[in-house]
Please model this.
Amino acid sequence: MKINQRLIQFGLSLVLVSGLFSCKKAEDFVPENTTIGLGSYPVSANTLVDLANGGNITNNREYTAGTALTFELQYWSDAPIKEINFYQTVGTATRELLLNQPYAPSYSKLKSADTLVLSYTIPAVAATTNIRLEAEIVNENTLKVIRTLNIRGK
Model:
């Protein structure tokens, strides 16, 4: 009988201690989202959706030259955002800046984030040429996040 009581007391103590430790509130919503001394990184968690052609853009999908792509970037940050950059790298060429836009609030209540629609036209390239698109969100604290999409010419 004493053994059962001790087991019950031990179990209750263990539950109580576990409960106390689980109540500790983290300082950041995602510990990996901050850098000591600089603050928070911007966040972009959406997948790139091809708005113009009605379907998801997936990595390594092939597109014909001249095809217009339009996709929405959804983002937010606890720290002030400085700018949005949009780059392309065609094949082995140098990374090229296509857009540099200062931050302008564009909050969507529906998506609970700022949104920006980006347009891109597939250049004339040899079949199966890799095209890397990068949307970069840069905070005033210099921390950034990059959303990447790899597609191919057809």
User: Anything to note?
Assistant: Residues 2-22 form the longest helix (21 residues). The chain has a mean pLDDT of 82.
